[in-house]
Amino acid sequence: MVFLHAHTLKKLSEHAESSFAWLLLRLLSSPGCSSDFIDTAEDDTQSRTFLDSPSLEIRTIGYRIQSIMKTIRAKVDLDDRYWPGGRHDNDFEDFREISILPTPDEIASVEIPYYRRMCDVYNVPEAQRAATHYDNQFRLLREDLLAELRNDLQIARGQKKGRRSAPPVHGLCLTGVGCGTDDRRKTCYLEFACTMGLPHLSCLPKADRTKLLDDNPHIFRHQAFGCLLSKREIVAFVSLDRGSSDLLDDLPILALVVSGSDELTRLFTCAKVGPPFAFLPVHTPIFAYEPILQRLQQVVEFPLSQILLASEPKPELLTLDDDLATLVRQIQTTNGKSLEAILDTDMKVSLDGSQLQSLLNVLQQSVSTIQGPPGTGKSFLGALIAKILHDKTSKTMMAICYTNHALDQFLEYLLDIGILESSMLTYPELQDSESTLKRPRLRGFQDNIVFVDHSHPERELHEISEKRDPSMKTSKQNLYEVEMALKIVKYLGQQGQLSLLRTELSKTNDPLLNDLDSSDLLKAGLLTLGSPKVLKSPIRLSTIDNYQGEERDIVVASLTRSNEAGDIGFMAAPERLNVLLSRARNALAMIGNGGIFLKSRKGHLTWQPLFEMLRDHGHVYTGFPLECETHPDRQVVIRSPQEFETECPDRGCSDPCSAAFACGVHSCTRRCHRAENHSRIKCIMTMEQTCPKNHKYYWECYQGAPRTCPTCLEEAVEAERLKREDAKLEAKRRATQLEHAKKLKEIEERIRKQRQPLKDEQGNRNRRDALARKEEELKSLTAAADRTRVSPPTSVPGEFPVDSQPEGGTSTIALQSEARDEWQRQKKDEDQSNEALDTLMDMIGLESVKESFLGIKVKVDVVVRQGASLAAERFGAALLGNQETGKTTVARLYARFLSIFGVIPGRFFIETPGSKLANGSVQGCQKHLEEIKSNGGGAFFIDEAYQLTSGNNAGGSSDYLDEELQSILQHHMHQKYNGRMRVEEGPGGLYMRIVARRVGRGRGRGGFGNARAVNNVFARITDRQAKRLQRQRRLKRPANDLLLTKEDLLGPDPQTVLRKNATWDKLQALTGLQSVKQSVEALFDTVQFNYERELAEKPLVEFSLNKVFVGNPGTGNTTVAKL
Question: Domain of life here (predicted)?
Fold first, then answer.
């Protein structure tokens, strides 16, 4: 009850309302339905609650409820679900209540329509059988209409492929209602304003619109059928009342007749609240169905139904007129022999028994059927019956045949049997209208009717059969006639005779005429490039059988057939000749072999009268008889396609035109052509001129001389563009400078603020150091003494030194890496990270390189702890190795490594070969350095650096002495560490002097750089210090970052290195080779001897490091050399 109450108060949502309607439908369909439910359904039906719902689903259920209510009142069995009515708003039990035109709901319905099979009709009681048959015929025929309409709607709406009848008209707004004038009333129509204009018309001037509609009556034809759409939904089906429409106005008005009151109500509702409508034309032939459907609805009596619909044959005898009854008795007495006297015919008539009985049955019964195989005289018997009924009765007869050919044959029988032709005229006597006598002359031709007689043979197409003539196995073509037809159509187009050639012909419409476009009309001055395209019918290419019922102003016909046998195929039929001669309104041009058609055995009787008439009136030519419209005395007969180009190349004559153009300077250089006004033709003569800057420029005459030289204009535009670009770049540069200055000022201010606390802290630190200096020195000396007592670790001398193993350790295997293990320890114990080191450690080999990277890292860490600057440190490196050993890869990793540790500010990387850098001289190198600086800092990698050479300056050699070099070293240490770095034996002690002597020993060699050499040596000293401090930190020993020991300054003791060196142990383990071992040991003894002489400040013993290994193959020469 709550549900019903909410429904009554209209408080249900659309979904709930649909559920309520469905429930009510189920209750009504159930056996023993309560009267309360029937009363509810009755109220809803009368109030149209469901029928007027905006939901299609609810309306569909409402239609079924409405049908059930009618059935309940009529006491119909509800168990039969397949019953007429209830599927939509146009489905009723009585077919006379059905609207012939469908409703939108009916089109949208997916329910199976109601109609019966013929056997179901015969199952109906005989009293109701005729009405049921008419009902079924109406529904079947209407379903054919709906099927075609649905198909056309899908094509028009783009839901299915097919040819659309007309484009849709959008933007329709309802403006009024009309029903004709007071003098002449019409069916009520609605007026719609086309706010978006009409397709193909809105872009044309008003005069052109009128001409277009006159020339093309099929555009918006009267009673054109279509539908009104709102939001792509069908609102109503309508038809166009063209007489009441105003199609020429700038705001066109369409008068549309709406079918059905319900559709009209729905249209008014949508017009009030919805968007503008769209009119969608469809070409469904409603007119072909509507009269028959209307007649079926109007019939109340069913003649002959008791015979045609009887379950068993029931012959019904006629009540004959006296004359006809007398004739029947006379025929019965003759037994079918010699009936010509009785029937008043000129031919002899005799019938056999079956024919006689069929004749008597037809004359005496209301319905008769004559059946029989071909050749049994059915057509002759039909003509005989028509003769009797025509002579003996006053009734009107209708002869219906399945095909036109059968009808023509039957009419010939009637003529042969003696029925006069005047009695068989289907139409009254036709007379030519006066307008047919005022047809325009065919321009460019000497005659309006032309038959071009030729003798060019036809050609067979073996791949195509001729379906219209079963006796022919192949189709035919005539290339000469095709070329002549193509040329003459182009000629007619340039004469302006064909309205359909006013616009370009689409290639898709006319594949044979794809070279025919509007260029000829443009040349003739009849069109301009800006002229809009006008909707015209394309050139119609058709066979003669497919051209019945159509007309054209000009027809060009190719008869095709031309052979020695005189075979013209289906062209022998007079019907086809009739179509050929009756399709043209103004002019007819035929191309064919007349002699073949007269020679034809089957067709000469048909074609001979035509050719005699054509010859008598002078319409037969050996080619196309043309004449020049400008020079009428120039007449010519064109016999071949090539002659068109020589006799009338521009569709005039061969004389020169010489008419002056609008410019008044030049004349037309073409041959005679059609041009009503040369002032409308553009003069395309090329003009030339030279500007003051000697630039030559050209133009076509109709364009007029340019006011300025195009080249000068381009140069001026380019100059202006460059100025604008320069101005933009200058503005950008100034903005960058200002931004840089602003940021620089901010950074300087921050530096000042950061420096002040450092200065204060430094002052405090200096005062504290002054108070406890003696104590600090004592502690440092004590710690240094302790460290000297510990056995110093050894390292292998070389370009990249490595740590020696601790005393008592064991040798590592080949795949182990002390550098990688050390890096893993630092990451684990000291929480270190560096992606470049991770990548390097993953590489195979390169152990010395990895150790050097770790050494640089340790050095950087020490410098940071020492509070010193890295600016004076040298981090350049030379990467030596064979090709493809990873030098470039390591160089890039080295740059990333330094960037991550803050040694260099950025990661920008430049790679260049040494030869290119040498060729670029100082400027090239400076350019690379500036590029690195501009990109935020980075690394400079020189490949093949051996190509760079160095030497003394032009002033000769003037190197520093050892004492001066020692002073430089002391100054560098003091400046870097602010005097805080302590040296074992003191800054002027023995070890510092030895370092200075080692530096000075490089004087006179290539690349010696004095102070630079001192800096390089000091860098190696700090490297050794950093590694030493790292070892001490790893062993948890105290380490003084501000102390340089003997090992740091001079390197490890050679004796200690040899004792702990794995390579030396490996050599000693080899069998034999005693002399080699002694030679190597002597070498190291010499190194140890020189080391001791350095400590004693004595001159060193000079010796060579080169060795020659002599021995037989397999005695270990290569192995010992590598060791």
Answer: Eukaryota
Given 1027, 1052, 1077, the domain boundary residue is 1052
Provide φ and ψ at 557, rounded to 5°.
-115, 130
Question: What's at 145, amino acid-wise?
Answer: L
Neighbouring residues of 495: CB distance < 8 A, sequence distance ≥ 6: 443, 444, 629, 651, 674
Do residues 563 and 595 lie in contact, with contact meaning Cβ atoms separated by under 8 Å? no
Is residue 530 located within the same domain as residue 395?
A: no
808: CB partners within 8 A, 6+ apart: none
Q: Are 485 and 591 in contact (CB under 8 A)?
A: yes
Q: Where are the beta strands (DSSP E) in 315-465?
A: 449-453, 459-461
pLDDT at residue 591 in the model = 92
Domain span holding position 242: 166-281
Within 10 angstroms of residue 356's Cβ, the number of other Cβ atoms is 19
CA 77, CA 374: separation in Å to the nearest integer? 51
pLDDT digits (tens, 9 = 90+) for 621-668: 999 999 888 788 888 898 998 888 888 877 778 788 777 777 878 888
Nearest of 1041, 1045, 1043 to residue 867 by alpha carbon: 1041
Which residue intervals of 340-458 are DSSP H helices? 340-343, 353-364, 378-392, 404-417
Same domain, yes or no: 458 and 496: yes
Which residue among 369, 392, 424 closes a domain? Answer: 424
Residue 575's pLDDT is 79
Q: Judge whether 642 lies within some domain.
A: yes
Residues 274 and 364 in one domain: no
The rounded Cα 1065 to chain-centroid distance in angstroms is: 78
- How far is Cα 730 from Cα 828, in angstroms, rounded to an integer? 54
Are residues 353 and 214 part of one domain? no
For residues 733 and 695, the answer to whether their CB atoms sit within 8 Å is no
Measure the CA–CA gap between 793 and 789, rounded to whole angstroms: 12
Computed on alpha carbons and rounded to an integer, the radius of gyration of the chain in Å comes to: 58
H-run or E-run covering 656: strand 651-656
Q: How far apart are CA 736 and CA 750, in angstroms?
A: 21
- Torsion angle defined by CA atoms of residues 932, 937, 943 and 944, in that order, rounded to the nearest 10 degrees: 90
| Residue 576 in domain | yes
Question: Is 77 part of any domain?
Answer: yes
Find out whether 727 and 706 touch, Cβ atoms under 8 Å. no
Quote the CA–CA distance of 180 and 178 in Å, as a whole number: 6
3-state DSSP helix/strand/coil % of the chain, to nearest 5: 50, 10, 40
- Least Cα distance to 451 among 599, 608, 591, 554 occurs for 591
440 is written with which tokens? 């325009």
| Domain count of the fold of the chain | 5
Q: What is the mean pLDDT of residues 877-904?
A: 75
pTM equals 0.40
Contact present, 587 and 554 (Cβ < 8 Å): yes
Q: How many CB atoms lie within 10 A of CB 342?
A: 15
